[in-house]
Design goal:
The chain is α/β, with parallel strands linked by helices and about 210 residues long. The protein has 2 domains: about 80 residues, Methionine synthase domain (Methyltransferase, Methionine Synthase (B12-binding Domains), Chain A, domain 1, Orthogonal Bundle), CATH 1.10.1240; about 120 residues, 3-Layer(aba) Sandwich (Rossmann fold), CATH 3.40.50. The chain has a 5-stranded parallel beta sheet with strand order 2-1-3-4-5, sandwiched between helices. α5 links the parallel β1 and β2. α1 runs antiparallel to α2, α2 packs parallel to α4 and α4 packs parallel to α5. The structure holds CO-5-methoxybenzimidazolylcobamide. The site of CO-5-methoxybenzimidazolylcobamide (B1M) has 38 residues, from α3, α4, α5, β3 and β4.
C-alpha cells in the first residue's frame, strides 16, 4: 500500500521518472497491473482532478501529471494484455471532437488490444466523419467513443446519426464511455454499449465479437 501511495504522490508531483521507477518496482514486487493502475496511478490522477476543480492547480500542472501517468501506463501495457479468451475484430477508437482527454481512451484501447482486437486509434479531437469513415475503410465491427467533457459528449450522438446516414448502423456496434457518460445517455442517443471503465469496455467488446 505504501508503494501505491508513493506512485500516487509522484504522479501528483508530475515526476514522470519517479513514477516509472516506482511502477517498475511495484511490478517487480509482484503487484497486479490493475492494482498498480487503480490504487497508484488513477488514485493520483483523481487527486489532481479534485485540485484542478478547486482551482488549486492549473492546466500545465495537470498536463505534467498526465505525462507522468502515461509513463506509468506504458510499463503496464504488456501486463494488461491478459491471457485468456481473445477475439479477432477491428475497433475504431477515439476521443470525440473538441475533446483532448486521451488517457482513459488509451487505457480502453490497450485493454481491447490485450484481448486480441485490432485497434485503429484515431487519437483525440476526432470528428464524427472520421469515426464513420475509418469504420467503413477498415470494415470495423466496433466504433468506440470516449468523452470527458459535458460540452463534447453530444458529439457521440453525431457519430450514431452519421453511421445511420452512411448506412453502416446495423453493421457496427457503437460503444461509449468517459466520466460524464452513463447508461441512460447511451440509450438516449441510440448507442449500443456503455461501459464505466476500460476493463469492462474490453470485456463488453469481446462478448460482442464472440456473440
Ligand atoms: Co481536463 N477536465 N480539461 N484536462 N481533466 C476534467 C475531465 C474535469 C472533470 C476536471 C474538473 O473540473 N474536475 C473537467 C470536466 C468538467 C466537465 O465537463 N464535466 C475538465 C476540464 C473542465 C478541462 C478544460 C476545459 C480545462 C480548461 O482548459 N479550462 C480543458 C479542456 C480541453 C479539451 O479537451 N478541449 C481540460 C484539459 C485537460 C488537460 C489537457 C490539461 C488534461 C488532459 C491530458 C490528456 O488526457 N492527455 C486534463 C486532465 C488530465 C483532466 C483530469 C484531471 C483527469 C482525466 C483523466 O485522465 N483521468 C479530469 C478530472 C478527473 O477525471 N478526475 C479532467 C484518468 C483516466 C484513467 O480516467 O479518462 O475518466 P478517464 O477514463 C476512465 C473512464 O471514464 C473510462 O475508462 C477509464 C478508466 O478505466 N472511459 C471509458 C474513458 N473512455 C471510455 C470509453 C469507453 C468506455 C470507458 O468506451 C468506448
Amino acid at each position: 500500500m505504501e508503494l501505491m501511495n508513493q506512485i500516487s504522490t509522484a504522479l501528483q508531483a508530475g515526476k514522470a521518472k519517479d513514477v516509472k521507477a516506482l511502477v517498475q518496482q511495484a511490478i517487480d514486487e509482484g503487484n497486479s497491473a490493475s492494482s498498480i493502475l487503480n490504487e497508484g496511478l488513477v488514485s493520483g490522477m483523481n487527486v489532481i482532478g479534485a485540485k484542478f476543480k478547486n482551482n488549486e492547480i492549473y492546466v500545465p500542472d495537470v498536463l505534467i501529471a498526465a505525462r507522468a501517468m502515461k509513463a506509468g501506463t506504458e510499463l503496464l501495457k504488456p501486463l494488461l494484455k491478459e491471457a485468456g479468451v481473445k477475439a479477432s475484430g477491428k475497433v475504431v477508437i477515439g476521443t470525440v471532437a473538441g475533446d483532448l482527454h486521451d488517457i482513459g481512451k488509451n487505457l480502453v484501447a490497450m485493454m481491447m488490444e490485450g484481448k486480441g482486437m485490432e485497434i485503429i486509434d484515431l487519437g483525440c479531437d476526432v470528428p464524427a466523419e472520421r469515426f464513420v469513415q475509418a469504420a467503413i475503410d477498415n470494415d470495423a465491427q466496433i466504433i468506440a467513443c470516449s468523452a470527458l467533457l459535458t460540452t463534447t459528449m453530444g458529439e457521440m450522438k453525431s457519430v450514431v446519426e452519421l453511421a445511420r446516414e452512411k448506412g453502416i448502423r446495423d453493421k457496427v456496434t457503437i460503444m461509449v464511455g468517459g466520466a460524464p457518460v452513463n447508461e441512460s445517455y447511451c440509450n438516449q442517443i441510440g448507442a449500443d454499449i456503455y461501459s464505466a471503465d476500460a476493463a469492462t469496455a474490453a470485456e463488453a467488446a469481446l462478448a460482442k465479437l464472440l456473440a
